[in-house]
Structures are given as C-alpha cells and as structure tokens.
C-alpha cells in the first residue's frame, strides 16, 4: 500500500488554532506580550516586514500560500548555539498583505514536534532553505539581474491560484513591487504593459492574470548583456 506523503499542514490543523487576518493585520507581532506562535499560512499572501526609523514599512520577503512562517525565533531558542557571537536577532513582523487564513501553533508544541517527528523537522528545514534561497535570489536580482527577468520571477513566485487562474492580488501596487525589487515604479509599469501587449499578462477586476506561464518562465531566463 502506498502511503500518502507527509503534510505539515495536517499537524498545524491538529495542534494549532485556525485564525484569520485582514489586510495589514499582523500574523506575528513581537511587540505583543506572549507572542511566540508559529504559523502555517494556508490562504493569502503575507510579508516579513520591519518599520524603519522614519516610520516606513520595509519588506524583506513575501510568503505565498502553504508556507511556514514566523519560526526563526523558535529555532534560535531550540538549538544550542552561541548566536550572540555572530548575530543578534532583530525583531520582525509578519504582516498580511491580503486577507489571510492561517493556523497558529504554540512554540512549546512546535519544539515538541521538532523533537519527536523527523518529517516535521524536515519540513521546517525545507522552509528555512526556501527562505534563504529567496532572499539570496532577491539580492542577486537587485545587484545584477535583468529588470524584466526580475519582475517575471516575482510574478511567478508570488502569484496565487484562484478560480483556476494564476493571479496577483490587487493589493499589490506597482510602487510596492518596485520598492521590493529595487526599481522605479515607472519601470515596473512599463514592463507590465509590455507583458500585457504580448498576451503574457492580462488585467481583470484590478488583478494581474498570468495567461501564458510558459512564456513568462522563459522571460525569467533573460540576462544582462
């Protein structure tokens, strides 16, 4: 008999609490006393954010659906390592960029699952690796990537599936995407317009719709000459 592949989502449903967050609400807020929960983002898009000294929100990373989020502090506590010699963990927030549905698990339960289930730990390691690679890719895009390729990669990475379509929620403005990718909003608007003209993108009810995913993936292979 073939066993079903392990799904960490099922553990979060079993041991966590289902919650909802409206756009701009926090899934994780370190300023709130007792906030030590780890989240599985089931629906929607969230972001790893921080407010700078000027009161402006800075986005480090977006999280799409079916992602494990907010577990860095738990890992720092769980593993015996002299973190202070290398880096002092900074406070961060997980902010809903669209309406989100997620499952929240207490830190003690998370640590217990890490100790007792190799499959659970494997998923946490996979989520850690994915976050690392996406951050490295973002830095690479901003330093020496082709701007069209950067935007196309962003579209593919952070689109969501809804009603059989791959779409970018209307919550994302070209200004926000441009700030995230280190571009000017006019540049992002110009690239999006060209993608619509070639039939790769369309706009429906204020959302960008990916109409030709294969061509969009081909566009991510562009390199600066």
Structure description:
- By secondary structure, the chain is an alpha+beta fold.
- 41% of the residues lie in helices and 24% in strands.
- It has helices spanning 8-15, 72-78, 107-116, 118-144, 147-158, 174-181, 185-197, 213-219; strands at 17-21, 26-28, 38-43, 46-51, 57-63, 67-69, 93-96, 100-105, 160-162, 165-168, 201-204, 207-210.
- The longest helix has 27 residues, at 118-144.
What tags apply to this protein structure?
alpha+beta; 225 residues; 12 strands; four-stranded antiparallel sheet; transcription regulation; cNMP-bd_dom_sf; transcription; Crp/Fnr family transcriptional regulator; 8 helices
Which spans have pLDDT < 50 for at least 5 consecutive residues?
none
Sequence of secondary-structure elements: HEEEEEEHEEHHHEEHHEEH
Question: Per DSSP, what share of the residues sits in E-state strands of 2 or more residues?
Answer: 15-25%
Spatial order of the strands in the main sheet? Answer: 1-8-3-6
- What is the overall number of helices? 8
Total beta strands: 12
| Molecular shape | globular
**Cα distance spanning the termini:** 53 Å
Main sheet properties:
4 strands, antiparallel
Mean pLDDT: 85
Cα gyration radius (Å)? 19 Å
């Amino acid at each position: 008999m073939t066993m079903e592949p392990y799904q960490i989502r099922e553990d979060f449903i079993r041991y966590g609490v289902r919650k909802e967050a409206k756009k701009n609400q926090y899934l994780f807020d370190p300023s709130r006393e007792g906030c030590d929960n780890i989240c599985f983002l089931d629906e929607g898009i969230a972001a790893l954010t921080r407010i700078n000294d000027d009161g402006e929100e800075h986005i480090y990373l977006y999280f799409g659906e079916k992602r494990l989020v907010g577990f860095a502090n738990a890992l720092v506590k769980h593993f015996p390592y002299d973190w202070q010699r290398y880096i002092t963990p900074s406070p961060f927030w997980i902010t809903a960029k669209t309406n989100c549905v997620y499952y929240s698990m207490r830190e003690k339960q998370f640590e217990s699952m890490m100790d007792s289930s190799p499959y659970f730990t494997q998923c946490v390691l996979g989520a850690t690796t994915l976050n690392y690679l996406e951050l490295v890719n973002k830095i690479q895009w901003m330093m020496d990537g082709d701007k069209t390729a950067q935007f196309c990669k962003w579209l593919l990475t952070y689109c969501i599936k809804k009603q059989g379509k791959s779409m970018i929620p209307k919550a994302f403005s070209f200004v926000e995407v441009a700030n995230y990718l280190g571009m000017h909003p006019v540049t992002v608007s110009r690239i999006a317009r060209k993608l619509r003209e070639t039939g790769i993108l369309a706009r429906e009810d204020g959302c960008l719709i990916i109409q030709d995913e294969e061509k969009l993936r081909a566009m991510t292979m562009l390199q600066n000459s």
